[in-house]
Every structure is written in C-alpha cells, then in structure tokens.
C-alpha cells in the first residue's frame, strides 16, 4: 500500500468501524515511523515502544485527522510529541539517579571518612563484605549507582521498570547501612 488513495480508503474503513483496516496503515507506515523515531531516541526498544504508542494514539485520535492531508506528516507530529515527552521523562529520571548517588554518598560518607582517616582497611573490607552479601540484583544496582549508570539502562539490563530500580536502590542502601552498622560495631 503506497498510494494516498489506498491510505485514504483504509482510513475511511477504520472510521466505519473496520479495525482490521488499521493494520494496513500500520504496515505502510511502520518502517518510516520507526526510522523517524530512531533519529530522535537512542535505544531500539524505546523506538519500538514509542512506535506502538504513536500508532495507538493515532488510532484513538483518527477523528482529528484532516482527511486529504499528509497522513505520514500527521503521524510524525504525534511521534515528535511522544518522543519529546519520553525524553523529558528520561531527563527527570536521570536527575533522580543523581539524587540517588548523592544519597548513597551521604549514607556512606562517615564510613568513607573513617576509611580515609586510618581505618581504611577494615571499613573497606566491611563494605565490600556487605556488598558481597547482597542479593545479586542489589549488587548490580549498587554497582550501577556507583558507576553513574542511567536508571533506564539499569532497568533494561535487569528486565524491570525504572521504578523497580529505584526501589532496589532504596532497599540495597538500607541493607548496606544495617550491615555496616553491625560490621563496624
């Protein structure tokens, strides 16, 4: 389906209630839309997710499409809006990750200060021992936080949500704090 007449016919069929006709539209615009989104966002999985969101939003908002105008341009407008919203959310999450790193530094500040002032070997050994005792997911999250990794990337590598990563960070900090208190007592 390449021609505007075929697209217009598919849009008209969808407007009449033929949801299957929308599949033809998705097939026709899937590749160009994904290429457009790939220029706006980095991760391929994000491109696929955004493309699905765009097609869903376009389906829901099909009544607002001006018949006879460029459907591809209309889709790209929706895609641009969705991509900008995604990038803003990602920036907010990045700032939250910075907050986590600061919290981690504050949590471990006294231990780090003691380590630097002569108790270095035992405090560092205790911290490493506490980290080693953490469950694997917690260890990965702590390492990612110390390395400055992005929460979205950590979530992707753990096959979980960003919210779950923040929850894991919080729980890992609590376990480390409790462990260090026992180790250094």
UniProtKB/TrEMBL annotation:
Signal peptide: none annotated. The keyword Transcription regulation applies. SUPFAM superfamilies: Sigma2 domain of RNA polymerase sigma factors (SSF88946), Sigma3 and sigma4 domains of RNA polymerase sigma factors (SSF88659). Residues 26-91 form the RNA polymerase sigma-70 region domain. One of its GO terms (biological process) is DNA-templated transcription initiation. Pfam families: Sigma70_r2. Keywords: DNA-binding, Sigma factor, Transcription, Transcription regulation. InterPro entries: RNA_pol_sigma-70-like (IPR039425), RNA_pol_sigma-70_dom (IPR014284), RNA_pol_sigma70_ECF_CS (IPR000838), RNA_pol_sigma70_r2 (IPR007627), RNA_pol_sigma_r2 (IPR013325), RNA_pol_sigma_r3/r4-like (IPR013324), WH-like_DNA-bd_sf (IPR036388). GO terms for molecular function: DNA binding; sigma factor activity. Belongs to the sigma-70 factor family. ECF subfamily. This is RNA polymerase sigma factor.
């Amino acid at each position: 389906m390449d021609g505007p007449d075929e697209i217009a016919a598919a849009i008209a069929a969808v407007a009449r209630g033929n949801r299957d006709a929308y599949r033809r539209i998705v097939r026709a615009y899937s590749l160009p839309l994904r290429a457009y989104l790939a220029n706006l966002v980095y991760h391929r999985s994000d491109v696929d997710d955004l493309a699905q969101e765009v097609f869903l939003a376009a389906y829901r908002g099909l009544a607002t499409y001006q018949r006879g105008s460029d459907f591809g341009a209309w889709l790209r407008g929706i895609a641009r809006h969705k991509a900008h919203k995604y990038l803003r959310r990602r920036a907010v999450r990045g700032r939250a990750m910075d907050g986590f790193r600061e919290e981690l530094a504050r949590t471990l500040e006294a231990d780090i200060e003691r380590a630097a002032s002569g108790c270095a070997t035992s405090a560092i050994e205790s911290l490493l021992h506490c980290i080693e005792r953490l469950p694997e997911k917690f260890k990965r999250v702590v390492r990612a936080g110390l390395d400055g990794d992005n929460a979205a990337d950590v979530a992707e590598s753990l096959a979980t949500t960003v919210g779950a990563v923040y929850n894991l960070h919080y729980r890992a900090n609590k376990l480390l704090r409790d462990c260090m208190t026992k180790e250094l007592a």
